[in-house]
Amino acid sequence: MSTEKMGIGVIIGNRDFFPDSLVEKARIEILDVFEDLGVTPILLPTTSTKLGGVETFKEAQKCAELFKKHADEITGVLVLLPNFGDEKGVADTLKLADLKVPVLVQAYPDELSKMNVANRRDSWCGKISVCNNLYQYGIKYSLTSSHVSFPSEPGFKKDLLNFVSICKVVKGLRNVRIGAVGARPGAFNTVRYSEKILQRNGISVHTVDLSEILGRAEKLTKDDISVKQHIDLINSYAPKGKTPDAAMVQMAKLDVVLNEFVEEYALDATAIQCWTSLQQNYGCNVCTSMSIMSENMLPSACEVDVTGTLSMYAMQLASGSPSALVDWNNNYANDVNKVVLFHCGNWAKSFLPDIEISNAPILGSTVGVENTYGALDGRTPANPLTYGRISTDDPKGIIKAYVGEGELTDDPLKTFGNRAVANIGDLQGLMNYVCRNGFEHHVVMNASKTASILEEALGNYLGWQVYHHKEVS
């Protein structure tokens, strides 16, 4: 998981009747941890306040000014409590800085052999007081997995890395730009969404008519340099199998135009009409282009599933790896906790070690198989699994989501397209929740264990309604 250029502000809380040496040691320790994890710290120098800690209102003002100066870099704030700390100093700093970023509250443990006046911390109690003040101020915050922990402990380092991912998700979703290419297929009411609700949450959707994309693609020829370059790109991405050269040219022309569209409008993700206008009016599938974009961390969803690609983007931010849009498609024999995940072929290459460009037999039965080249064939092997879905709920005027974890398995599966088998605890309960709450048949998978990160980012910080599915014990 990359933490490159992730700036985290640090507030070291202090209270004057506790030993100053605790603050000094905490500063050294946290700087070592940040360096080890590749996170950039932004904190007061030791010359600005006593040892760089924050206790008084004037010190809070200094720290807030520093944070505002680096507002473009700071994606989250870590509150470090080497002793009880001053709860007002911490809360005032965050209120004055007004960064509106995630906050992680840490507290040091006391050691039974050091409960004397010279070494006592009382951070256990101080953390409760700090959180109480943040709650009063209306400032959202996250907690470490253990109430108290040393920064050098593996548990805290994991907490910090998870927090960095939470910051990435929150920052990314507050400013995401999605391109919607074409109209929603007429038979797919399931992928309806509210563009206005998304915009209220900072999510912009830029639409373009499919005819504009196809028209621009048709003006290109196989001799254009850009087309030749994209044919080479596609050939280096996946074996062409039995795909005709003419279909490869069609795919490359479409790929050129889609990439231009993404660049022109600075898009973070796309959702593309692919059923069935593209095949009938242009003569190929767009799956390979979508797969390449998703592999390159520009997620792309089919059937103009805008909130589907938003879900892909959120999971990508949480994990640092590509996501895939899939159908909750089939039961797996009589196993109540296994399900077949399927799509006709646009998953990122990361999911498909046996990737090959092919066609789409189901779609081909109505539009002609010869018009469906560009779909991918491949089986996803055993992997960790995070699944989930973001959706707009128009009657309630909200954004809602569900997330959970399971495993992708190597269970036998003889079929075509992009396919996987997932094992999910209490799958029947999950399906009941999905159906009862009007979620789409599309879900997103990611080869990670990041459901808790998504729950915290989407629910606590973005204020969306989130259900975290867990196996019933």
Write the layout of secondary structure elements.
Blueprint: E1 7-12, H1 20-37, E2 40-42, H2 57-69, E3 74-81, H3 87-97, E4 103-107, H4 123-137, E5 142-143, H5 154-173, E6 177-181, H6 195-200, E7 204-208, H7 210-218, H8 225-237, H9 245-264, E8 269-272, H10 277-281, H11 287-295, E9 300-302, H12 306-319, E10 323-332, E11 335-343, E12 356-358, H13 361-367, E13 375-379, E14 383-393, E15 398-409, E16 418-423, H14 427-436, E17 442-446, H15 451-461, E18 465-469
Parallel strand pairs: 1-2, 1-3, 3-4, 4-5, 6-7, 6-8, 8-9, 13-16, 15-18
Antiparallel strand pairs: 10-11, 10-17, 11-16, 12-13, 14-15, 14-17, 15-16
Protein name: Fucose isomerase
GO cellular component, one term: cytoplasm
Keywords: Carbohydrate metabolism, Isomerase
State the major sheet.
6 strands, antiparallel, barrel
User: Roughly what percent helix?
Assistant: 25-40%
Number of domains: 2
* Percentage of residues in strands: 15-25%
Strand tally: 18
End-to-end gap: 31 Å
Q: What is the CATH topology descriptor of the largest domain?
A: L-fucose Isomerase, Chain A, domain 3
Radius of gyration: 25 Å
- Tell me what the CATH architecture of the largest domain is: Alpha-Beta Barrel
Strand order of the largest sheet: 10-11-16-15-14-17
Indicate the overall shape. elongated
Output the CATH class name of the largest domain: Alpha Beta
Counted by DSSP, the helix tally is 15
Structural class, from secondary structure content?
alpha/beta
